[in-house]
Amino acid sequence: MKRIFFLLLVTICTIISITTSKATIPSPIDDDTSCPIAGGTIFVSTAGVLNGELKNALNSLVADMLNNPSCKVVVIGGGKGNKLEQQASWENVNAVINYLVEEKRIDRERFIFMHSGYSSVGTVDYRAAGENEDGPSSVPQPFPGSR
């Protein structure tokens, strides 16, 4: 009887130990990227123009990129409707990347340029690139004469 009680106690302790252990099991998000850069959205009121408030909104991205020099960032412009929206989307992404490259001295090759995304016109989303994700750091304007 003592043996059965002892085995039962050991089994219960093992189960408790397993269920309360803090083992790290990677989530699908962890598998997608190894960069700790948080994503975000900025709102651009005039296509291609970043005012001081918008530049301040990018400060956390700048800090994250400087602290994680091996990470790449995907910059995605909102608006995939008509030619005007697509051009505005391109102008917004281009303005954000140019600001980060020219004023904050972040290497252009650390960006993946995507325009005509699915979010609202006048928004620019950014997120850490996945481990094997790649793309161009600049693309030609889709409709340069549409403005």
In words, what does this structure look like?
There is one protein chain. The chain has 147 residues and is an alpha+beta fold. It has a domain at 27-128: OmpA-like domain (60s Ribosomal Protein L30, Chain: A, 2-Layer Sandwich). 40% of the residues lie in helices and 16% in strands. Helix 5 (83-102) links the parallel strand 2 and strand 3 (111-117).
- In CATH terms, what is the architecture of the domain at 27-128? 2-Layer Sandwich
Determine the number of helices (DSSP H or I, runs of at least 4 residues): 5
Derived structural class: alpha+beta
What is the residue-mean pLDDT, rounded to a whole number?
78
Task: Give Rg in angstroms.
Answer: 23 Å
CATH H level, superfamily name of the domain at 27-128:
OmpA-like domain
Strand content: 15-25%
CATH topology of the domain at 27-128: 60s Ribosomal Protein L30, Chain: A
Strand order of the largest sheet: 1-4-2-3
- What's the N-to-C terminus distance? 87 Å
H/E topology pattern:
HHEHHEHEE
Task: Characterize the main sheet.
Answer: 4 strands, mixed
Low-pLDDT windows of residues:
5-32
Anisotropy-based shape: globular
For the record, the CATH class of the domain at 27-128 is: Alpha Beta
Report the count of strand segments: 4
Key features of this structure:
147 residues; globular; 16% strand; 60s Ribosomal Protein L30, Chain: A; 5 helices; 4-stranded mixed β-sheet; alpha+beta
